[in-house]
Design a protein that fits this description.
Number of domains: 2
Strand content: 5-15%
Radius of gyration: 20 Å
Structural class: mainly alpha
Number of helices: 7
Largest sheet: 3 strands, antiparallel
Strand order of the largest sheet: 1-3-2
Length: 161
């Protein structure tokens, strides 16, 4: 529960810096209420989904983020080409359900969010061990089907199992 202490300090500091109101009792009390409400929700979530498991992901995140950043840039360029040169690079919208190898809610959420962060693809639904993906380009969905993103997220997820 040490993280709640850090969260309290962080939220209060952030609120004070962003609001700029240091001497108005009414606004300060609203700030206190806001921080307490956020802490209450964080505590409720922590009871159901312990945070200490997510901490073990931190060492692997920088490499995953660098890879994901590269994928986002490449997808951005591809979508941009198709917007600027539609005759040369036509769109090919596709909806497909793909298998997921992730076991935990955190792993499945990370995978679905990574798909959505990549331009041209959106995770529409996650049921069991499958994710339904809309792709602006058939090639994007084909790349997801090859499984590189799934493997990388699963490798990251193994840190919490």
């Amino acid at each position: 529960m040490l993280y709640l202490v850090f969260l309290t300090f962080g939220l209060a500091t952030f609120w004070l810096l962003m609001s700029g109101f240091w001497d108005n009792p009414l606004l300060l009390s609203f700030g206190v209420i806001s921080v307490l409400l956020c802490l209450f929700f964080a505590w409720k979530i922590e009871k159901k989904y312990p945070f200490h498991k997510a901490i073990s992901l931190l060492p692997g995140l920088p490499l995953f983020w660098m890879w994901l950043f590269k994928e986002v840039v490449v997808a951005n360029i591809d979508v941009l080409k198709r917007i600027w040169l539609p005759e040369e690079f036509p769109l090919s919208p596709t909806i497909r359900t793909l298998p997921m190898s992730q076991k935990t809610r955190l792993g499945k959420t990370t995978y679905a969010n990574a798909i959505t962060l990549t331009p041209g693809t959106i995770s529409m639904d996650v049921k069991g061990n499958e994710v339904t993906v809309y792709g602006l380009l058939k090639e994007s969905v084909d790349d997801l089907e090859k499984g590189e993103m799934d493997k990388r997220v699963s490798k990251l997820e193994k840190r919490i199992l």
